[in-house]
Design goal:
The complex is a heterodimer. Chain A is mainly alpha-helical. Chain A has one domain. In chain A, 80% of the residues lie in helices and 0% in strands. In chain A, α3 runs antiparallel to α4 and α3 runs antiparallel to α7. The radius of gyration of chain A is 18 Å and the shape is elongated. Chain B is mainly alpha-helical. Chain B has one domain. Chain B is built from 7 helices and no strands. The two termini of chain B are 28 Å apart. Classes of the chains: A mainly alpha, B mainly alpha. Chains A and B meet through α3, α4 and α7 of A and α3, α4 and α7 of B.
């Protein structure tokens, strides 16, 4: 058995993992928190992405919107990660072989890479274009990548239950 | 025709038949329902935090509300259409489900509130700044929309 699978089995068999899995309400409550925080993260990122694409809030500068939504996005991300990890803990052994879960992890890695590239390139000169109604093409490309990847994460996340 | 027979008719329709027999068709509709939820949630949150005076204070609340209402109403329409398809899978059961009834009541309240007092609060905020009334409107709006989501999640559990 590969090391990673051993680890997943260990989490799955642990007392804490078993408690969540076998509880009547714990799993559902954590899952609801997870869905709400995904809405928080994806929804606030989508507002910024749609602004860069020139769909909404064109008269408000990019940095102004970014400053407003980033604390929400990050707070949501922390809660999403914690609730997601607890759900994984409870089902770790099954998640190891779940194809939708694997796709979701790959998409999560990519969605983390996207802002990393964005912030070190086109966003460094944001003051030159923050007031433009439609952002430069590289920012629009980042926005489309972000919307696509986050949609993929939601779709893959939902698909986990179907395998 | 009574409301109950409408639900039964939906369950027996060809849409209901597809949703009941095809696992992946149901999953696909559910995914679109969730994607629209993310957009709706994000726009509700940004508008209500502006009403509360927490974010984007230098910008016009009316403008933010009007702009994001396109996203909000667009995703609401997608959610209602996909919601009808999801409902058709077990319409008869949902008709009797307390969680489903709560969800519909909260949804009706949220939509009614959004088009009336909430809209008025957005207009007022540009004139007189964040007041107790506009903050109350934001809190009520957040509670109603969150309630719709929580009741929706409960349909599958109760």
């Amino acid at each position: 058995m590969p090391l990673l699978q051993h680890l997943c089995q260990f989490l799955y068999d642990s007392g804490f993992g078993t408690t969540i899995r076998e509880s009547d309400y714990a799993y559902s409550i954590i899952e609801s928190v997870h869905v709400i925080t995904i809405t928080l993260v994806t929804g606030t990122i989508a507002v910024l992405d749609l602004r860069m694409l020139g769909v909404v809030l064109r008269r408000i500068s990019i940095t102004h919107i970014a400053r407003a939504v980033f604390p929400l996005t990050w707070a949501g991300f922390v809660l999403m990660f914690i609730s997601g990890f607890l759900l994984f803990w409870a089902e770790a052994a099954k998640m190891y072989t779940n194809p939708a879960f694997r796709v979701k992890l790959i998409l999560l890695a990519l969605v983390g890479l996207n802002p990393l590239i964005f912030h070190t390139t086109v966003y460094r000169r944001v003051h030159e274009w923050e007031a433009l109604h439609v952002s430069p093409w590289r920012a629009r490309a980042a926005a489309i990548a972000s919307l696509t990847l986050w949609s993929g994460i939601i779709i893959a996340g939902r698909a986990i239950a179907y395998f | 025709m009574s409301l109950h027979s409408w639900f039964i008719a939906l369950g027996n329709s060809s849409l209901g038949h597809v949703m009941q027999t095809s696992k992946w068709d149901f999953a696909l509709v559910e995914m679109v329902h969730l994607l629209a939820l993310a957009l709706l949630g994000g726009s509700v949150l940004v508008v209500d935090l502006r009403l509360l005076g927490i974010i984007l204070n230098g910008e016009s609340a009316r403008l933010i509300g009007r702009d994001l209402s396109r996203v909000l109403i667009g995703s609401l329409i997608v959610m209602i259409l996909t919601g009808i398809a999801l409902l058709s899978e077990e319409a008869g059961k949902c008709y009797l489900s307390p969680a489903f009834r709560w969800k519909m009541a909260l949804l009706a309240a949220a939509v009614l509130f959004y088009f009336t007092l909430h809209r008025w609060a957005l207009l007022r905020t540009d004139v007189s700044g964040s007041t107790l009334g506009s903050r109350a409107a934001a809190v009520i709006s957040l509670i109603l929309w969150l309630g719709v989501g929580v009741a929706g999640r409960a349909i599958g559990l109760l």
